[in-house]
Amino acid sequence: MNRTGLTAMQLALALLAGGAALLGLGFGLSSFGTAPLLTLYFALGAASLVRLALPFSLWFDGALMLFGAVALILALPAEGAVPAHFWWALVASWAFAWLFVERLSAAIRQGQLPETGTGLVIPIIFGLALLVAWEAITRGANVPPVLLPPPSAIWARMTAEVPTLWADFVQTFIKSVLPGYAMGCLAGLIVAIAVDRSPFLKAGVMPIGNFMSALPIIGIAPIMVMWFGFDWQSKAAVVVAMTFFPMLVNTVAGLNAASAIERDLMHTYAANYWQTLMKLRLPAAGPFIFNALKINSTLALIGAIVAEFFGTPIVGMGFRISTGVGRLAIDLVWAEIAVAAVAGSAFYGVIALIERGVTFWHPSVRGGRT
């Protein structure tokens, strides 16, 4: 965002916080309960009118954002309705988090702060802001836990069900996702090389691959359960079916990424097919292959969880989600979703880190710099 946009945002937030300070002060005088912390928060927000040009304004925004989040959580009553100015504070805290992220991004772009490490702060703040808003809305509006439990209830259930969540993670991720992912991606890579070698296979297999990749998992999973049984083997088979064709299609496209001039240069060096493949075409296909690996990292987990809906031993993320919904244990369902999200994000992140080390030469990894 440009400098003018930041100043306009700061002025808008200052007016919001200043007006809220007066409203919160009125509530504070009438009901000395949840209002004092929020009133102090509003007053600090109004101070943004006088610190627009100060060098520490970025860190003032960060401290104000953290204070607002803590004040909101502490102001939540154990039961009953929240005061009206609580919702104004929620909007203001979200806006100040937005302002802090904008100013932090501008400082990184201008070279005032290092990008490595500091850039991770932005998604962390965004995620924490979502959690604070989720907690404030669900508890402040008295949303029934059956519809949407607050993050605090989900965390309490996670800490209480650690053995169960770990057993489900091992059954779904370790036993089903990882073997199926490895077999599906490796098979797709090998078949792609064979398809690239044979024009006949390319003409025959690629249309079938595009067709099979569009098949719904709801139709594949019951068949795999009937073929391979109720244990992890059927879930791994579903993962193989889901990861094979994205790898096949991306690898075939990547093998054709090397230009004709580069292939002609290898030919002038008397390189045979396999030497050209290993030294030119596979490295050129690296970004395409890693793109398929990253796509498959999420598809594999989704496929394994959905496959467990159609038959599994009494363990697994999909089994726990389906039975939890039936028993209205929605906090346990969200706990399983949180574990799956963390596992999938970590899996994706590991592949992305490997990609940066292997394809360091590619413009997408170097940030487009030449």
Written description of the protein model:
The protein has helices spanning 3-30, 35-46, 57-75, 84-109, 121-140, 151-160, 162-197, 199-212, 217-228, 232-255, 260-268, 273-284, 286-307, 317-326, 330-358. The chain has 370 residues and is mostly helical. It folds into two domains: 3-143, no CATH class; 159-358, MetI-like fold, CATH 1.10.3720. Helix 7 (162-197) runs parallel beside helix 10. Mean pLDDT is 77; it is low at 1-6 and 24-33.
The average pLDDT value, as a whole number, equals: 77
Q: Using DSSP, what is the number of strands? A: 0
Percent of residues in helices comes to: over 70%
CATH level-two architecture of the largest domain? Orthogonal Bundle
Largest sheet: none
Number of helices: 15
Q: What is the terminal separation in angstroms?
A: 25 Å
CATH class of the largest domain, named Mainly Alpha
Q: Name the beta content range.
A: under 5%
**Radius of gyration from CA coordinates:** 27 Å
Q: Uncertain segments of ≥5 residues (pLDDT<50)?
A: 1-6, 24-33
How are the SSEs ordered, and which strands pair?
Blueprint: H1 3-30, H2 35-46, H3 57-75, H4 84-109, H5 121-140, H6 151-160, H7 162-197, H8 199-212, H9 217-228, H10 232-255, H11 260-268, H12 273-284, H13 286-307, H14 317-326, H15 330-358
Helix pairs in contact: 1-2, 1-4, 2-3, 2-4, 3-4, 4-5, 6-15, 7-8, 7-10, 7-13, 7-15, 8-10, 9-10, 10-13, 13-15, 14-15
Kindly list the characteristics that best describe this protein.
370 residues; mainly alpha; MetI-like fold; 2 domains; 76% helix; flat; disordered N terminus
